[in-house]
Design goal:
77% of the residues lie in helices and 0% in strands. By secondary structure, the chain is mostly helical. Helix 1 (4-31) packs antiparallel against helix 2 (35-60) and helix 2 packs parallel to helix 4 (98-130). The chain is elongated and about 65 Å long. It starts with a helix and ends in a 5-residue tail after the last helix.
Length: 135
């Protein structure tokens, strides 16, 4: 069964789960002494939040806003694979296995923020097209 409230509730739970995951990664990296990597995770958290926020705000204004590369499924898959393979290869001595997690996080951090700005720009263009011309 589906409802309008169910759709809202699902979206809210999606945001919570994603943000709690990024917070957990930030916290873990901080307590393990990886300050710079925790900043990358925090920037990924910000980007993730902003991608969702810009879309929700745009849709609240009546603008469809699904543009951009780093949407929720991409963020979840990259983060999950990074965490999974970091754990699988935790005993590697050739390099620090935490990098297996940090590289996908850096990718998410960069491209989720780019996606958020792409969405803002998309909304700006749509709004400018719909504005009455001033002569």
């Amino acid at each position: 069964m589906s409802s309008t409230f169910g759709a809202l509730y699902d979206s809210v739970l999606d945001r919570y789960s994603e943000l709690i995951t990024f917070f957990g990664i930030c916290y873990y990296l901080l307590i393990k002494g990886y300050f710079l990597y925790s900043v990358i995770a925090f920037v990924a958290l910000i980007g993730s939040l902003m991608v969702s926020y810009v879309r929700a705000r745009a849709e609240g204004l009546g603008i469809e806003c699904k543009v951009g590369f780093m949407q929720r499924p991409e963020r979840v898959v990259l983060t999950s694979l990074g965490a999974l393979f970091c754990g699988i290869f935790k005993d590697v001595t050739l390099f620090d296995p935490i990098l297996i997690l940090v590289f996908p996080l850096a990718f998410v951090a960069l491209f989720s923020n780019i996606t958020a700005f792409m969405r803002v720009n998309h909304c700006r263009r749509v709004m400018m097209q719909n504005e009455p011309k001033k002569y």
